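User: Sequence recovery, please. Input:
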């Protein structure tokens, strides 16, 4: 999700650094996971810290994005990026800008850990099947097969931590005036489980899974296309001796991520709206106030798409896209700098080359 989020599905560090590394490894057909357990743990910690810092830095934009996605169309409170941020500040204060960020940060390390080991196992399984099919025991994974392994790992990691993302959405939109408030992650998880059952923790899971395909595919395709174009045309002296600098590579990653997120964004909107269904005493932002108060009801992903477009128009599928796009570049820059600093402190070996 896509954001995030499809958000979707990626840790903060893997969104910008590992994209470049995986593209390089895919071309060279080198196995990316040959670290010792100690090094892996240190890398996960460094990535977790970097992801936490970067997500916290852009948390106000992330919260506003979700508010724009799910707010009642008959009771508009947030109308644009600047006005929305000002409204949050005026009505909820400084802390209101960071609601839901704790849950978002708490997902980083478990999501990254599951993704890392899932990628390794998926790569082994796909390679075994590929070798059996070709009859060549020395065959290596192709870029496309690596892409498939990465998508599998992303889906598994997203599924494993999805309940935390689900309650994050609700924690993000509740306000001080909400009829009934979740007191935190544990309380939200236990309340949803008790009132809506286990399936309630996975509302919106299907569009999240579907969103992984265009997001990951476009990320890879756009990144590789941009890199190849830069190497061939060498515009503005950005490429020297067929080498792309770190800043240029990060810019390519940001562009690729933005394209992927934009295409998969409607699925992210639908995912968030489905997460609000069945919320007893839902926030007024979702249910509305007074005569405009009405429960949000969808009978699945297709029904959510149909009702959203019918009642709010096609543009509703891109609500919150502006703050979501604005936060991409600063998030990448902050995460990269933080990761490098933590890496130096902890002695984590990480090389960015092409």
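Assistant: Recovered sequence (354 residues):
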């Amino acid at each position: 999700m896509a954001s995030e989020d499809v958000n979707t599905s990626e840790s903060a560090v893997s969104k910008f650094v590992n994209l470049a590394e995986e593209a390089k490894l895919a071309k060279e057909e080198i196995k990316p996971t040959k670290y010792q357990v100690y090094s892996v743990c240190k890398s996960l910690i460094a990535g977790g810290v970097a992801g936490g810092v970067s997500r916290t830095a852009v948390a106000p934009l992330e919260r506003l994005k979700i508010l724009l996605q799910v707010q009642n169309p008959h009771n508009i409170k947030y109308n644009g990026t600047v006005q929305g941020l000002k409204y949050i500040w005026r009505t909820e204060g400084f802390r209101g800008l960071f609601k839901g960020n704790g849950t978002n940060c708490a997902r980083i390390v478990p999501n990254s850990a599951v993704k890392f080991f899932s990628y390794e196992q998926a790569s082994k399984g796909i390679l075994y099947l590929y070798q059996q099919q070709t009859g060549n025991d020395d065959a290596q994974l192709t870029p496309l097969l690596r892409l498939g392994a990465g998508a599998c790992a992303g889906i598994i990691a997203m599924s494993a931590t999805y309940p935390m993302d689900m309650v994050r959405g609700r924690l993000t939109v509740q306000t001080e005036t909400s009829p009934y408030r979740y007191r935190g992650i544990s309380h939200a998880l236990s309340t949803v489980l008790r009132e809506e059952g286990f399936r309630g923790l996975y509302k919106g899971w299907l569009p999240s899974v579907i969103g992984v395909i265009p997001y990951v595919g476009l990320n890879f395709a756009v990144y590789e296309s941009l890199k190849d174009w830069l190497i061939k045309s060498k515009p503005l002296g950005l490429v020297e001796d067929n080498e792309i600098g770190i800043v240029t590579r990060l810019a390519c990653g940001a562009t690729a991520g933005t394209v992927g997120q934009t295409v998969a964004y409607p699925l992210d909107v639908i995912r968030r709206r489905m997460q609000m269904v069945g919320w007893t005493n839902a926030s007024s932002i979702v249910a509305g106030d007074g005569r405009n108060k009405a429960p949000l009801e969808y009978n699945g992903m297709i029904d959510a798409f149909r009702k959203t477009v019918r009642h709010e128009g096609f543009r509703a599928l891109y609500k919150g896209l502006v703050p979501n796009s604005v936060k991409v570049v600063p998030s990448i820059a902050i995460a990269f700098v933080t990761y490098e600093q933590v890496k130096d402190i902890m002695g984590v070996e990480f090389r960015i080359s092409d």
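Residues 2-35, 348-354 have pLDDT under 50 and may be disordered.
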